[in-house]
Amino acid sequence: MTQTVLLTGAAGKVGGMLRPMLRQRYANIILSDRHPVDDLAGNESYRPAELGDAQQVMELCAGVDGIIHLGGQPTETDWQTVSTSNVQGMMNMLEASRVQGVKRFVFASSNHAVGMYPRTRKIGTGEKVRPDGRYGLSKAFGEAACALYADKHGLRTLSIRIGNVCEKPANERLLSVMLHPEDLFQLCTIGLEHPDLHSEIVFGASNNIRGFWDNDVAFRLGYRPKHRAEDFAAEALEAQKAIPADPVADRFQGGGFASEEFSGDAERALWN
Known about the structure:
seven-stranded parallel sheet, 10 helices, 15% strand, two-stranded parallel sheet, 9 strands
C-alpha cells in the first residue's frame, strides 16, 4: 500500500491545491521544489532538489512508495530550459525511481502534447502525439519515457494529459479543458493505487460536455469526475468577449500555445 508519496513541484499553484487532499489520504507526504515550502503540516516534510541534478534527484526519491511528478518547466520557452527540466529532469526522476524501488509514478503530462489537433475533432489517447511547441514535445517525451520504465523495469505509471486546473473556467476554451482540483486528485489516486495499472495515458479533464477528448481509458480505470465546466458557461462565454480573436489559437486545441511562433499552413495542419 502506498504510504509515502513524493510531490514534486509542490510550491506551485497545482501542488498547493493537491496538498490538503494528499495529506488526508496518505501517511507521509514529501514535498519537493526548487523554491522553499515552509508551511508544512504534521505529516509533510520538504526536500529541495533541482531536477537536472541526477544525484539530488536520486536522494530525493529514497524511501518513497509513489510519486506525483508535477515539477518541471511549466510553459513554453527556449529548448535548453525545457530540455533540462522536462527531458533530462524526467529521466533523472524515472531512473531514481528504478534504483530506489519506487512502485508508482504519476506524471503530469499536458494537453499540449496533442495541442495541434483541431477543436472540431474528438481524440482519444491512442491518437498520435501532435505537440504544439517545445513544452508539449517534452511532455510527449515524458509519456514515452514512462512506457519504457513500465515495460522494462516494472514501474507502474499513469500519464495525465492535464487540461487546465481550476475551480471554474475563465474563458470558452476552458469549458472544454477544465480540470477541477478534486478531479485531478481522483486521477492521482488511481495512479497511486489502481491494482491493475501498468502504464496508461489519460486526459485530465472534468465532466465537460464541450470536451475535445474521449477519456475512455480513464473511465475504464474507474475515474468518475464530480465537477462540470458547463455550470459556469454563461460566465466563461461573457469573459470570452473581452479576449481578442486569434485565427490560429481559436481553431486548435492547444489555444495560445498553438499560435505562439506559428508560421505554418493552418489549413493543412487542421485537415491532417
